[in-house]
Amino acid sequence: MSVAFAPTEETHLREDPRPARRAGDARVFRATLRKDLRLEWRSKDAINSMLFFALLVVVIFSFSFEPTAEESRRLAGGLMWVAFLFAATVALNQTWARELRNQVLDAYRVSPAGANALFLAKVAGNFIFVAVLEVLMAPLFTVFYNLRSVGPLYQLAGVCVLATWALVANGTFFAAISLHTRSREVMLPLILFPISIPALIAMVQATTAVLTGEGSSQFWVVLLAVYDVVFTTVCLLLFDTVLQAE
Fold first, then answer.
1. Could you count the other beta carbons within 10 Å of the beta carbon of residue 3?
2. How far apart are CA 28 and CA 9, in angstroms?
3. pTM score
4. Which of 152-161, 179-188, 203-212 shows the lowest per-residue confidence on average (mean pLDDT)?
């Protein structure tokens, strides 16, 4: 004879809470990303600022020298990613500044959802903003520097994805660190640029290899991928501590 026991309150307490927490994290991620995209769509502050800054860099360098087509392919990788790095800091500085209004960041701190969902949503939003900038600036680089890719373009697309993630993942994390400093607009570049040097070298070398067709970009792409994995993991591990700091 089998006896069936009705679930008690103690049994419910032993149930695994991880599925509910994952669902809460997913809701926080979607809500935060949707909010950031909607605010940017209405104001266009970050896109306009980044576009103006990147365009200024392109125009200044184009008037500074008149390289040949071969020289342009050698120089374009460095010019392009330096312009994107400096322009991206404009959007990165605004990432957390918006959350200080109306104590939104305090609400995130007391939220039961994990801090990593908030971090990944911010990184995804910044990734979209910088990717839009790259799409808008690509024709201008082609026109001003008479660029023609010798290597396959699909490799250049892969380099852009990995390089953009390297910029925004670290940038979003260090923007949170510099949020409560007195001069966060100055502090963020001082922290971000030295940390981004290995990624910047890899993205410039990979882009130059694709544009010129000289050598292989495989080593630099692998280096970028490893950089992304390592630094994204470190940021995820430390972000909860950064979020709770005053």
1. 4
2. 29
3. 0.83
4. 179-188
Whether the Cβ atoms of residue 171 and residue 92 lie closer than 8 Å to each other? yes
Residue in the structure block whose two tokens are 């990944």: 120
Give the start-to-end residue ranges of the domains of the chain. Answer: 19-244
The two tokens of residue 182 are: 């007195």
Q: What is the DSSP string of the chain?
A: ---PPPP-HHHHHTS--HHHHHHHHHHHHHHHHHHHHHHHHHH-HHHHHHHHHHHHHHHHHHHH----HHHHHHHHHHHHHHHHHHHHHHHHHHHHHGGGGGGHHHHHHT-SS-HHHHHHHHHHHHHHHHHHHHHHHHHHHHHHHT---SS-HHHHHHHHHHHHHHHHHHHHHHHHHGGGSTTHHHHHHHHHHHHTHHHHHHHHHHHHHHHH--S-SHHHHHHHHHHHHHHHHHHHHHHHHHHH--
Distance CA 171, CA 184 (A): 12
pLDDT, tens digit (0-9, with 9 covering 90-100), for 107-159: 777 766 678 888 999 999 999 999 999 898 888 877 777 766 666 778 888 89
